[in-house]
């Protein structure tokens, strides 16, 4: 219910990030006004055509309730990574794993950043996406509890990856997190977002996060996102990236958990010759929905973007891929490729793919391809003819299909986590078929 | 559990086999008996049912046996799944080996060898022992070890795919090998390599059925028996001279003699 969220803001305002900053109160109020005016998106909205949100809209998610966060051992670790943990939108200081960070690097919470340097981050919070701003962005702006702020100074290459763990706990709770990553000229960072559930309470939950990334000229960011939440979780992640000249942004996501998962990637290449690579693997079963939404906006010449999205779906699961590429009139020499492929393991599974290319420049190379199919019967026959059982053969083919995407995750712990999540899903799914 | 075969044992016995796909009858009363140590060639024009024969022996799920029987080592295998037949020792070399991107040849073959070994009550091979076996099998078809780390058949040339099939046969040591058009799409050198591999795998306890449209592979293999398949049945059987007769006069004449005018007309 829409009024419910105004109430959360009115009663919890003092507990949210930047509570004593008047401009923050104003920002929140304005966002709440917009949310009240628009309400939740419906399937009449182009960008939400294939994703039903009635389950979220019909729920009054609680927020800012006190939690006794689980002990540190409940969270995943990555070798050598600096770990920050948020549970239901609240930072858990005891779960932080610290690494020595180079001088000048700022890694803190949004709450702290709004105390230390409110002016420095005000403009990142005030920024709305040019197009496609919607209820979940506005709600996030109105209700953001906390988040991570990372600033990498010019020329600094962060040796330790940043592991950002977001935990939801059930109990009809929602967490609203707002993260900011700023990488200055020539800086480089690896970020791993990890979204999971530690089911402390019965019932559904919602995790709504906005991550604003600014990459200056020649900055580089490797961004992995593991969404492996519980099956009653709703996971909405909005990622807004601005890229300077010759900057590099690589994103690889795995969406394997949640009742509903939606990852929005809006990337604007502001400077020339920027490189963007977006990849996502969705695995769905039962009546899960996994939705990837991308918008790559080439506003400067000489840039490249590669997009690869894959889905494997069983039961009544649905995967949605909306892939939009825009090439502005002055953005000549763009190389933009997009592919989406889905494998359906059951008759009731559905894959929707909608590539949208808007090209206003004339010297560009843009391709897109999209396929939906089943496991190849002839390949199965071939493998079985050599002695492999049907499950083993099917598993081998599915592993091969997913491997292409999993191998985009950086070698080491991150890829191991991704591989393990895929393997668990395959076990569950192939057993379910019997 | 699979048992070893004895010299002269009947490995494959097909009796009055009728097979249909999508309701259309392809094999119409085919009979064939192949003993251990023997190599039989099945020749025939396109559309005669040669590939159907290979697939139905291997147990392809799309083909329906509507009559007759297939016995392997005396046991009716008509109700056995593809992989059960394979583990018992039935091997089929594919006319078009499937390309499977993302599956390395090595990991697939290790899984295949161990599925067969497990079925035979043998200890599965570890990576080291597998590699040792694989290396010696690869020598037979002069395959480079680099193929093991490549995706299964992906980007392989026609010759490489066929050599890969014979390599797999060498590794799996089947009791019955059905080679479906193993010569198709090969140049003379590749054909010789494949034929040498097949010859090296001839053994007193193994039976082979070689399906081909042309005589040229048979010149290298020198089969013990040749059968001509037309309209879903074996219409003539003989020795190597039959292959030469076909080479000289073509299928049409032979089919006409057999009273198969329609097939003869199609074969010309």
Could you name the key traits of this structure?
heterodimer; A: 434 residues; alpha/beta; 10-stranded mixed β-sheet; 19 strands; 24% helix; B: 268 residues; Rossmann fold; globular
What fraction, in percent, of the residue positions of chain B are helical? 25-40%
Count of helical stretches of chain A: 9
| Inertia-based shape of chain A | globular
Task: Just name the CATH architecture of chain B.
Answer: 3-Layer(aba) Sandwich
Strand numbers in spatial order across the main sheet of chain B = 6-9-10-3-11-12
Q: Write down the overall mean pLDDT of chain B.
A: 90
Strand composition percent of chain A: 35-45%
User: Would you give the CATH topology of chain B?
Assistant: Rossmann fold
Radius of gyration of chain A in whole Å, from Cα? 21 Å
CA gyration radius of chain B, whole angstroms = 18 Å
Commentary on this structure:
The complex is a heterodimer of chains A (434) and B (268). Chain A is of the alpha/beta class. Chain A has two domains: 2-271, no CATH class; 377-434, no CATH class. Helix content of chain A is 24%, strand content 38%. Chain A is built from nine helices and 19 strands. A ten-stranded mixed β-sheet of chain A has the order 2-1-5-7-9-11-13-15-17-19, with helices on one face. In chain A, strands 3-4-6-8-10-12-14-16-18 form a nine-stranded mixed β-sheet. In chain A, strand 1 (82-87) and strand 2 form a beta hairpin. In chain A, helix 1 (2-12) packs antiparallel against helix 2 and helix 8 (390-406) packs antiparallel against helix 9 (413-433). Chain A is globular and about 70 Å long. The model of chain A has no long low-confidence stretch (mean pLDDT 94). Chain B is an alpha/beta fold. Chain B has a single domain (10-267), classed as P-loop containing nucleotide triphosphate hydrolases (Rossmann fold), CATH 3.40.50. Chain B has helices at 50-58, 82-88, 105-119, 127-140, 158-172, 188-201, 216-221, 240-257, 261-267, and strands spanning 10-21, 24-35, 39-43, 64-72, 75-76, 90-93, 100-104, 151-152, 176-180, 207-212, 225-230, 233-238. The longest helix of chain B has 18 residues, at 240-257. Chains A and B meet through helix 7 and helix 8 of A and helix 2, strand 7 and helix 3 of B.
């Amino acid at each position: 219910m829409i009024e419910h969220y105004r109430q959360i803001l009115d009663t919890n305002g003092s507990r949210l990030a930047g509570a004593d900053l008047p401009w923050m109160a104003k920002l929140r109020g304005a966002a709440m006004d917009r949310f009240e005016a628009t309400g939740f998106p419906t399937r009449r909205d182009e960008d939400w055509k294939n994703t039903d949100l009635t389950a979220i809209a019909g729920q009054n998610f609680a927020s800012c309730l006190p939690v006794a966060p689980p002990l540190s051992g409940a969270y995943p670790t990555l070798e050598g990574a600096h770990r920050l943990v948020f549970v239901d939108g609240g930072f858990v200081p005891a779960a932080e794993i610290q690494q020595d960070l180079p001088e000048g690097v700022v890694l803190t919470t949004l709450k702290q950043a709004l105390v230390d340097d409110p002016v420095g981050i005000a403009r990142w919070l005030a920024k709305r996406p040019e197009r496609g701003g919607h209820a979940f962005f506005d709600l996030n702006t109105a209700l953001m509890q906390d988040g991570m702020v990372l600033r990498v100074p010019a020329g600094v290459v962060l040796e330790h990856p940043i592991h950002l763990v977001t935990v939801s706990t059930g109990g009809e709770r929602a967490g609203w997190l707002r993260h900011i990553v700023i990488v200055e000229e020539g800086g480089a960072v690896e970020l791993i977002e990890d979204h999971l559930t530690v089911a402390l309470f019965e019932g559904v939950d919602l995790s709504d996060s906005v991550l604003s990334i600014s990459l200056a000229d020649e900055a580089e960011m490797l961004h992995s996102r593991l969404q492996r939440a519980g099956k009653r979780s709703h996971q909405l992640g909005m990622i807004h990236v601005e890229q300077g000249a010759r900057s590099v942004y690589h994103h690889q996501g795995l969406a394997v958990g949640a009742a509903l998962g939606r990852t929005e990637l809006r990337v604007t290449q502001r400077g020339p010759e920027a490189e963007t690579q977006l990849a996502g693997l969705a695995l769905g079963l039962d009546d899960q929905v996994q939705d990837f939404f991308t918008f790559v906006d080439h506003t400067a010449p000489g840039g490249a973007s590669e997009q690869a999205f894959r889905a494997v779906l069983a039961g009544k699961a649905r995967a949605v891929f909306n892939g939009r590429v825009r090439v502005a009139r002055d953005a000549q020499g763009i190389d933009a490729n997009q592919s989406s492929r889905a494998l359906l393991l059951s008759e009731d599974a559905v894959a929707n793919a909608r590539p949208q290319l808007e090209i206003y420049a004339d010297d560009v190379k843009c391709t897109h391809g999209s396929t939906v199919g089943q496991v190849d019967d002839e390949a199965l026959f071939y493998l079985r003819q050599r002695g492999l059982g049907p499950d083993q053969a099917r598993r081998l083919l599915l592993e091969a299909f997913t491997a292409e995407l999993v191998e985009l995750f950086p070698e080491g712990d991150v890829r191991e986590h991704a591989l393990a999540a895929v393997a668990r899903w395959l076990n569950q799914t192939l057993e379910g078929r019997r | 559990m699979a048992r070893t075969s004895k010299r002269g044992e009947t490995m494959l016995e097909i009796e009055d086999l009728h097979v249909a796909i999508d309701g259309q009858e392809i094999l119409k009363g085919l009979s064939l008996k192949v003993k251990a140590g023997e190599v039989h060639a099945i020749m025939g024009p396109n559309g005669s049912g040669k590939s159907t024969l290979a697939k139905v022996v291997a147990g392809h799920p799309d083909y329906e046996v509507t009559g007759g029987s297939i016995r392997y080592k005396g046991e009716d295998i008509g109700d056995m799944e593809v992989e059960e037949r394979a583990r018992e020792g039935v091997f089929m070399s594919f006319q078009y080996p499937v390309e499977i991107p993302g599956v390395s040849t090595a990991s697939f073959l290790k899984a295949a060898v161990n599925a067969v070994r497990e079925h035979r009550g043998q200890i599965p091979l570890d990576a080291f022992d597998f590699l040792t076996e694989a290396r010696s099998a690869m020598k037979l078809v002069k395959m480079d070890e680099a193929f093991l780390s490549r995706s299964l058949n992906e980007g392989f040339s026609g010759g490489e795919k066929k050599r890969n099939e014979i390599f797999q046969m060498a590794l799996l040591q089947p009791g019955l090998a059905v080679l479906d058009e193993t010569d198709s799409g090969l140049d003379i050198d590749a054909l010789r390599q494949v034929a040498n591999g097949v010859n090296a795998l001839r053994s007193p306890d193994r039976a082979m059925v070689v399906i081909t449209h042309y005589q040229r592979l048979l010149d290298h293999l020198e089969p013990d028996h040749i059968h001509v398949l037309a309209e879903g049945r074996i219409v003539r059987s003989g020795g190597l001279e039959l292959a030469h007769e076909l080479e000289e006069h073509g299928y049409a004449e032979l089919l006409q003699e057999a009273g198969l005018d329609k097939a003869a007309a199609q074969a010309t």
